[in-house]
Amino acid sequence: MKETSVKGLRSRLYIIGAGHAGQSLAEEIKVKAILGNVVAFLDDDTAKIGTKIDGIPVLGPIRDVAVLLRMKSADEAIIAIPSATKEYINEIYNILNKAGFRRIRILPGISQIIEGDAHLIQTRSIDPQDLLGRTPAAINLKESLAYLRGKRVLVTGAGGSIGSELCRQLLSGGASRLYLFGHGENSIYLIDRELRLLQEEGVGEKATIVPVIGEMKDRDYMFFILNKLKADVIFHTAAYKHVPMMEENPVAAMENNLFGTKNLIDASLAGGIKRFVHITTDKAVNPVSMYGASKYLCEKLVLSASQSGGRPQGSSFMVVRFGNVLGSRGSIMLLFQKQIEKGGPVTVTHPEMKRWFMTIPEACSLVLKAGGVGENGGVYLLDMGEPVYIRDLAKQMIRFYGYEPDKDIKIEYTGTRPGERIDEPLWAGDEEPVATEFNRILKLRRKKNQQTPGMDMGNLLGHLEPIVHYSADKTEQYRNSALLSKLLQEAIPSMKEPGS
User: Fold this and answer.
1) What pTM value is reported for the model?
2) Which domains does the chain have, with CATH numbers?
3) Is 395 a catalytic site residue?
4) Closest CA to 299 of 283, 270, 319
């Protein structure tokens, strides 16, 4: 954003979209004159074309006028149409790219722009996730987050992809305090600095931001810190998430994901937490991987807590499940990008492999909405739309970077890895999704007349305990991954499937 000149030339800025968001950006750029000059708005609205807004001409239609512009080396475009569909953004990007703009930036989707309020600091360089997938649901964040006004909100894994986006959106909720909890010093530092800068530039409300470096695996610490912070609401996103990595480190998956979550839940029950929202994954459905098994058991823990006699009166413990998100730190998109940058090949595990995808901002907006309307003991599923073939995602990314699949950049199929499956179901055989009154939020309920064998979580955790935590009288069990696998196969039938 501070890159304002090339070879001494001052940036000439074209704002795509002459609506309220575009006008807000133009006004801010005018005040901060060092950023460059807005040369024109480009718009397809015939009522605006040919007019001037604060002295800035509105040109259009975009497709016709873009090819007539005489580009200079410092020219930039900012797409400021928060309500635009993916298809329209795709069309505009292709037009601007062909027109020769040096840099193309974009405002986030409408779910992040509160009541049309847009700020330059929210813009970023356009990337593949802005062009892939479906058009996100339009959610009024201020309305959705009303239940958090004046509350103390804690986000675990606040430095991660989902956690950090939750924090950005939570700035608009009117929370009194926002606790950024995580064990990675650098990731917490980065989101802490970003949120403070957003506040300085007028984004959101003035919640007090408190970074907290801590470890969920430390049970005593979790009880201490939750008692100290007096949080009202917890959004639990922290987890080890890389499937192949957790296959190589199965005990670590259970130690961090399962026992870390147990520590957090137990401390929440003792600390009087009023609302606990657990973020889970489609890989927890009939799990075949260590990561999936850990999240499956975490779901059981949360639902058990919702029925606990020690649960604070009026409190709610709930689960929100969804599939993959575009552009997360562990996303296949980042791997594809690196492979494309080095000239390929782009590797896909299997030609028929499919996954459910949504953008991180949309997933977080729906999580925050579900956290407010969800009931105690509820399992909620975000409507993921239609699954996407990974091979198609690879082809789209290759084209985004200006190449042709299998001509300029080859696609190679490498075979599935341990813990992976071709398709990921979103619900189990004994579950059925039912619509709620809220767009793209489903509720999962048990099928009628379907009995599911209960799981004795206390007994299972007791057997897993000496594997995860050292016990002087059970030294042979400590970090014993073979024993861990055996116990999980006995407890979770799907873990016996071939390839698991």
Assistant:
1) 0.91
2) 5-126 (3.40.50.720), 141-332+357-389+417-446 (3.40.50.720), 458-496 (no CATH)
3) no
4) 319
